[in-house]
């Protein structure tokens, strides 16, 4: 075992990246010694706020005009695997999103009935630490390792706190897909390490070193598909989305899906590793990827219109809009990358809002069937407004974060592919508007077919629930009307990708 000197490259007075990764794990360990419910609430809220404060501090100290990785921390564990963390503007944006959503999850978990809440919160903090690690590691094997932790614990939450009697089927499907995704991802990473060894004589999975070892043309396509499919299952992207509808219907209502879908680790993995390391394969196959994404938009949108269960409808909404995001990324120009990243962040906030509102409704009605959810706007108007605003954000209406994002994506697509793919994406977005507005109408405005006694038993929203709904709406609208700081944050971090994919003739 080779141990090297711990090397910190700091722009702050303490190792902020290590703190963001390991502070949630330390909090999770404290749950073993705290039994008092009031102290537990104070600890979890205080810890989540501290983590968000650390993320904000990172954002404040980060130099957005410097395209290099910053705040580097490196420590060799067992060669060639090492802890190597650093951030650019893209990482900082995803870290802020993770800390914010984790705080919301903690707060939300106290607003719904949960068995063994202490264990649930401990696992949630472990997931937060794993997510933070994925967004700042430059070592691909470390990324695979913490991805496995993240997906395993999220699967356990989906199963152990599920709201359906068919959880075994959902868990089985989840394990099958995620195990295959991790296997493909690991195989792709090993291919890159082997290629580096073949060129330099030593194995490495570090992004900075892999960038200096061009991947041979004859293995680029194989490596690309291993990594791409490994990420695509997690995103999820058509036609690798088969786990999501059944997990959405029979798994945990909101919190586990937020960790899976609200924070797009698969999208980040494509941006951080696949696009910069395998440019030849990306250019060779990007039209193939976009073609499947276009099919996925319409396929998922049409299936969404056929659903009678709100949770399954939202699952297909995820697949449809993820396809639009992929079209953006694989249009392979500056506007494409900007739009794709911002769309991922917007999508994270919006789908989290939809999932939280869905959870609040489920715990009141114990059903997700649309024909039994009608008339909820009279009793829960703020929930209805939040659901409506989040839906508009997903489809990119003006005043929401999705507007600038979708505009950039469509602009990039028409520049790269011309009118056909762009018009298809735009039409798919219109269909998406249809099924989300239809879901809103069915759940909140249409007359309910449920017995009138059920409606009279539905509790009105508590003050805490109203606060959470208002915070989400304010975030969506404020980012929508004031998106410049977030675009400026990632502007210079995309220079390396711009240089790769803006060569003459490409």
> SSE order, as H and E?
EHHEEHHHHHHHHHHHHHHHHHHHH
Number of strands: 3
Largest sheet: 3 strands, antiparallel
Structural class, by secondary structure, is mainly alpha
Work out the helicity level: over 70%
Helices, by number, come to 22
Radius of gyration: 22 Å
How is the largest sheet built, in terms of strand order? 1-2-3
Distance between the termini: 45 Å
Overall mean pLDDT: 84
Strand content: under 5%
What is this structure, in a nutshell?
The protein has 506 residues and is mainly alpha-helical. It has helices at 16-30, 37-61, 89-109, 117-134, 140-160, 167-200, 207-210, 217-234, 243-250, 255-262, 265-277, 279-305, 310-329, 334-365, 376-379, 381-395, 401-417, 419-445, 452-457, 463-481, 484-491, 495-501; strands spanning 7-8, 70-78, 81-87.
What do these coordinates show?
The structure is a single chain. It is built from 22 helices and 3 strands. The chain has a 3-stranded antiparallel β-sheet. Residues 1-11 have low confidence and may be disordered. With 506 residues, the chain is mainly alpha-helical.
Supply database-style keywords:
73% helix; 506 residues; mainly alpha; disordered N terminus
SSE arrangement:
Layout: E1 7-8, H1 16-30, H2 37-61, E2 70-78, E3 81-87, H3 89-109, H4 117-134, H5 140-160, H6 167-200, H7 207-210, H8 217-234, H9 243-250, H10 255-262, H11 265-277, H12 279-305, H13 310-329, H14 334-365, H15 376-379, H16 381-395, H17 401-417, H18 419-445, H19 452-457, H20 463-481, H21 484-491, H22 495-501
Helix pairs in contact: 1-2, 1-4, 2-3, 3-4, 3-10, 3-14, 3-21, 4-5, 5-6, 5-10, 6-8, 6-9, 8-11, 8-12, 9-13, 10-14, 12-13, 12-18, 13-14, 13-17, 13-18, 14-16, 14-17, 14-20, 16-17, 16-18, 16-20, 17-18, 17-20
